[in-house]
Amino acid sequence: MIWLRKLFGGLKAELGFILLLAVVSVGAWQYVQARHAERDRDDTVRRAELVCSAVGVDWTEKHMRGPGTACAQRARQLRTDREAIDRETARLLSDAIKQQAARADADTRAARDAIARARAAETRMEKANADADATNHVGPDWIAALNDLAGLRRPAR
Predict the structure, then answer these.
(1) DSSP the chain
(2) Four-residue CA torsion sign, 63, 68, 73, 77
(3) What is the pLDDT of residue 1?
(4) Segment 75-101, tens digit of pLDDT
């Protein structure tokens, strides 16, 4: 216990120096923190200047709300424009896909109709050939069936 009293007695005598040391330590820590804050601020301003120059506005452009406000407004406008462009692009692509699907459906129907007409023309030609073989005579029905098979149109009447 005596050594504890000696320790506290010695500390009491040096209390002013210990307090000064604590104040200096806190001050040094605050100084270092302030330097880090300044470095971070300068880095943020540099990045903001780079972004602003990319959107075509000077960071220091005069504005009643301070530097960077005009840049922020321009960036918001660019974002709004980009969203509008993306929406319009999606609409145009959707319309193009619908038109392509409609053309594909029309082509499919036309192909089915052509196949049906070709089959009917083939059937008529076979019947006309059978009739020509039976009579050993080629008539206008046989010629009309041949024209149908070749895809030629009948003359207008």
Answers:
(1) -HHHHHHHHHHHHTHHHHHHHHHHHHHHHHHHHHHHHHHHHHHHHHHHHHHHHHHT--TT---TT-TTHHHHHHHHHHHHHHHHHHHHHHHHHHHHHHHHHHHHHHHHHHHHHHHHHHHHHHHHHHHHHHHHHHHT---HHHHHHHHHHHTPPPPP-
(2) positive
(3) 65
(4) 899 999 999 999 999 999 999 999 999
For tokens 């993306």, the residue is 86
Distance CA 123, CA 134 (A): 17
Q: Rounded distance, CA 126 to CA 135, Å?
A: 14
Q: Does residue 54 contact residue 74 with C-beta atoms inside 8 Å?
A: no
Long-range contacts of 49-52 (CB under 8 A, 24+ apart): 51/75
Claim: this prediction has a pTM higher than 0.70: no
**Is the CB of residue 71 less than 8 Å from the CB of residue 57?**
yes
* 8 A C-beta contact, residue 55 and residue 78: yes
Number of other residues whose CB lies within 10 A of the CB of residue 128: 21
User: How far is residue 56 from each of residues 51, 53, 77, 96, 115, measured CA to CA in Å?
Assistant: 9, 5, 12, 34, 61
